[in-house]
Amino acid sequence: MFYWLMKYVVIGPVVKAVFRPWIVGRKNVPANGAAILASNHLSFADSIFLPLVIDRPMSFLAKSDYFTGRGLKGWATKFFMKATGQIPIDRSGGKASEASLNTGLQVLGGGDLLGIYPEGTRSPDGKLYRGRTGIARMALEAKVPVVPVIMVDTDTAMPIGRRLPRVVRVGIVIGEPLDFSRYAGMENDRYILRSVTDEIMVALQRLGEQQYEDVYASTVKDRLPARVT
């Protein structure tokens, strides 16, 4: 009920009226059943606009830092993340990664939509970077299709480091679902996981025509000034 109120009564109508998001390929989102929506990641705002333009509820796995802030700002951020269907996860690696996988599988096991950013973090420069294989493992274990999604101009509306968004019209392009059922039972084969992940990234690159770099976005970020996160 809380999610519905935020999306259709409180936050959603205001955001739609101000930013007038456009969408292509809405019909490619399955009308029912579990699926992963795999999106490029340009801005913090991606997790706001995508759920607004599709008819079904969906959840994103978000870093737990967004839910642990203190003071008024921390409370507001936590409230907003919950209102937009975000689920806190620990992205420190190791056992935390396994817990994140299990959290995603629980969402999919309930027949719901799960949003994932295969790059693992926001692009620092608008390019598309190498995907992390967690999305492939999740898709194969849950036996669900992966729907490629491209966010357009969200980095212009809210660039990394900016606190308040610019009023810019943003867009969402949704491609046809990718079926990986031919790899059933191979979710522990790291070569298969890399192949599936690369296929997802190719679909994203073709859909959005972003320049692709075969390196992790986090590696590029490590070379940039500390203010870029």
Structure report:
This is 1-acyl-sn-glycerol-3-phosphate acyltransferase. One of its GO terms (molecular function) is acyltransferase activity. InterPro entries: Plipid/glycerol_acylTrfase. It comes from Microbacterium algeriense. Keywords: Acyltransferase, Transferase. The chain is of the alpha/beta class. The chain is 40% helix and 16% strand. The chain is built from nine helices and nine strands. It has helices at 2-10, 12-19, 46-53, 71-83, 95-109, 134-142, 154-157, 190-208, 217-222, and strands at residues 22-24, 35-39, 58-63, 86-89, 113-116, 128-129, 146-152, 171-174, 212-213. The strands form two sheets. It has a seven-stranded mixed sheet, with helices on both faces. A two-stranded parallel sheet has the order 6-9. Helix 4 (71-83) links the parallel strand 3 (58-63) and strand 4 (86-89). The protein is globular and about 45 Å long. It starts with a helix and ends in a 7-residue tail after the last helix. The mean pLDDT is 88.
Structural class from helices and strands? Answer: alpha/beta
Query: How helical, in percent, are the residues?
Result: 25-40%
Q: Main sheet, how many strands, which sense, barrel?
A: 7 strands, mixed
Care to count the β-strands?
A: 9
Instruction: Tell me the overall shape.
Output: globular
How many angstroms does the end-to-end distance come to? 33 Å
Strand content: 15-25%
Largest sheet: spatial strand order: 1-8-7-2-5-3-4
Poorly predicted runs are: none
Rg over CA atoms? 17 Å
Give me the strand/helix succession: HHEEHEHEHEEHEHEHEH
**What is the residue-mean pLDDT, rounded to a whole number?**
88
Number of helices: 9
GO molecular function: acyltransferase activity
Domain Phospholipid/glycerol acyltransferase: 35-154
Protein name: 1-acyl-sn-glycerol-3-phosphate acyltransferase
Keywords: Acyltransferase, Transferase
